[in-house]
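Proteins fold reproducibly. Take a tokenised chain:

. . .
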Amino acid sequence: MKSLLSVLLLLLGLSSVEAQKAANPKKADAAPKMAAKPAKPTLTSVSPRGLHLGVEQVFSLAGKDLAGATILTSHKDLKPTIDAATSTATKIVFKLQAPAGLGRSSHDVWVKTAGGESAKLKLYADDLAPITTTAADFKKGPVQIAKLPASVWGTLTETGQHDAYRFTAKAGEELVLDLAVAQVGSVAKSPTLEIVDANRTVLAVNRGLDSGSDPFLAWKAPADGDYIVLVSNTTMDGSAGHVYRLTMGALPYVTAFSPLAAKVGQETKVTLIGHHLGDQATVTMKADKEGMMNVPLDAMTLRFRTMPSLRVSALAQVSEVEGNDDLAKAQVVSAPVNVSAALRRTSFPTRSGSGATGNELENSFYDTDHFAFDAKKGQTWIIETNAAQAGSPADPKLEVLHPNGKPVARLLMQAVRDSYNNFRSVDANNPDIRLQNWEEMELNEYVWFNGDIMKIIRMPRGPDGGCFFYINDGKRRAYFDTSATSHSLDEPCYVVQPYPLGSSIAANGLPIFTVNYQNDDSGDRKIGRDSRLTFTAPADGRFVVKVTDTRGWGGERFVYSLSIREPKPDFSVKLAGMNPTVMPGASVGFSFRAERTDDFDDPIQIVLTGLPAGYWASSPLIIEAGHDLISGSLHAMPDAKADADWSKLKMTAKGKNITHDAGTFGKVTLGAAPKFIIVMEPDVGGKAVMREIKDETRPLEITLVPGQTVKAWIRAVRQGNDGIINLDVHGLPHGVIVDDIGLNGVQIREKENERPIFFRAANWVKDQDKLIHAALSSARNEHDSAALQTSFPILMKIRKAAGVALK
């Protein structure tokens, strides 16, 4: 019939298209397709990168999907004007004038279209006009720098590229050359700065003002004439991301300052260390409150990499009196106190003359500082340095000595089992070490690795795992104020037990170690290269703090402050997983990380109250003694409201005699329906409970006896996703693990919906109740659930068997 109708319509003179519409009326009336969503704009580069203060410049943004874009900046006084005639979908040309008073600084620029906002790129403001070079500019020889000072932007795009700049200098003239690489977000990891003469004789080389920093030279020309500065990458690699900025000239540059600390309410004279500082080398300031305070220097004139800032406290301030290199001439101070000092001499000959960079001295020797103070028996003091935290290159090491020079002993460590690292070398940060005979070890035991004392937090959970040691901020902790160090393959170690000094220890054929009061890098890993130790006086008397640089380095920039103060135990907690998006019927993780101060080591309880109807969150949460992390789960009921009132939510953290506010979730967004929902449930008769998602309004319970195992289930309620799901269980009491998980960890395989798991508790785990949950995470990762999809929690109850006493 349809074909007959088409023929009749054609005979009546209708077009073939009209005939098809008439023959298929439903198809003809179909709704038009929805317009495609505009693509999100992408930026790949901005050129030039340098903003010349007070001068209008023309810039170009490269990328894609830029049609119709507007340009946004991070400063209200940066107002770009787009040149529409020369802009395209892949390039935006615009004019921009930075105010002269903006100061040397960095600012973001990005674009916005109907498709969204792009990533942000950086512009760097300076009072020097930026010169931009490319690899092609060097094909015929060095690029001539007509006048100093100058600011040059280049990119090491080619393999083995060396950018050469010719400049003229006068004999004895000191020039500062600052090569900014990491400072401008470059991907170059091994930049090198060299100065050569016309005969290509190397006059100066620098690969970093300090270890791990960008190159810097303060150089004096040996004679009038032309010289060449070379910029390269030691590893010879190159790309469009290997960008750099070379600033050179007789520029006022601050490379250090002293003192690093000040007393609140007291006027402090700060000496700036560097080059061409003139009458700006000293600054007087007065702090009216404790904390960090910037030095009020002339930021428009002086250049520096990091703004100098002083640590202000109520401690009395004294300055080092030179001559304290000898123990017998130790400078006597009265604790509590803060001492401003410097390690000005080195233990080896250093290059002098034209190549010196300001942190090198001529032939000298190792600088050692000694400070004596009096203490009563049993009195506890925190002794710590502030150097690296303030930008000083010093790497201080602390030792507490008796007046006769003997180290003050802290405790004894008896080795009870021997072992060794049987897999691979590990650095000072790695908490995962494979130990021989780990089956003979227990959680919370100390392991001695050549003076580095660590503590086991988790045993291997499968054939491909190692012993996992306690960490802080992802770095392996060291105990008893020892310092974390690297350890080689096959390096011996011992499980050790601490004993007070003077204890009678039965010989067992293994060594007994004496731990002295000394520290290189703080064992809690919170203050970088700086040192900290907790000293308890063994008797009334005088004690001497010895300060050295652990490498034997020194110079005028190697300043530090030494504080001897009473401990103030405290803590704070920080919420991770703020502004969460939680899907209806599902859960999302969050976590709290504790910052413990001055040996505060008690449990911390975090309570959440005032959640709106339709939502549920893990509460209370317990950060166990000696630990710093706990994870929780925020759940949205299937009928949760998107406009729920979160204003009454309150989070409170409580420790021993201390209470702190713990923050808030921020903006909570109800997301789209999940592709799967994770469920964790107890085992009942060999099967999961199989509770409906709508009934997840309170935690189910599971009971585990110390020394035993209990079965549970993890299920996936799939709603359009049939793939592999990798999981782990977070929030477990210390001493409880998911047992025998194999190489792949906890995993629900493709197109499967459940799997059993087994919890095992160590014999010593105490009775407690704790909320736990499954999380989308690898079993090798830290138990941090922040922003991960999780299950509704279950309540794990640890209960010892009737008639069994826990040791």
Summary: The first strand starts at residue 42 and ends at 47. Residues 447 and 495 are 4 Å apart (CA to CA). The radius of gyration is 33 Å.
